[in-house]
Design goal:
Strand content: 5-15%
Shape: globular
Order of helices and strands: HEEHH
Helix content: 55-70%
Number of strands: 2
Strand order of the largest sheet: 1-2
Radius of gyration: 15 Å
Oligomer: single chain
Number of domains: 1
Distance between the termini: 26 Å
Largest sheet: 2 strands, antiparallel
Length: 65
């Protein structure tokens, strides 16, 4: 996941735990940038959904306890 973030443009990401919102601080001013941001979101969603982050979080909480 770190490699994904290091290899792509910077986006501000917000999440409520069920969905996420991507924002570009420069704004979206053409179709090419819209497509790039959409592709980024799809690839990020695929990375997140293919990993079991709930299990990882629970394991990390157990280690800290």
């Amino acid at each position: 996941m770190v490699l994904f973030f290091e290899s792509n443009l910077y986006y501000h990401i917000e999440s409520n735990g069920k969905t996420f919102l991507l924002m570009n601080k420069e704004g979206i001013d053409n179709v090419k940038k819209i497509k790039a941001q959409f592709d980024y979101g799809i690839r990020l969603e695929n990375i997140i959904s293919n990993n079991n982050y709930d299990e990882i979080l629970l394991k990390s909480l157990q280690i800290k306890s």
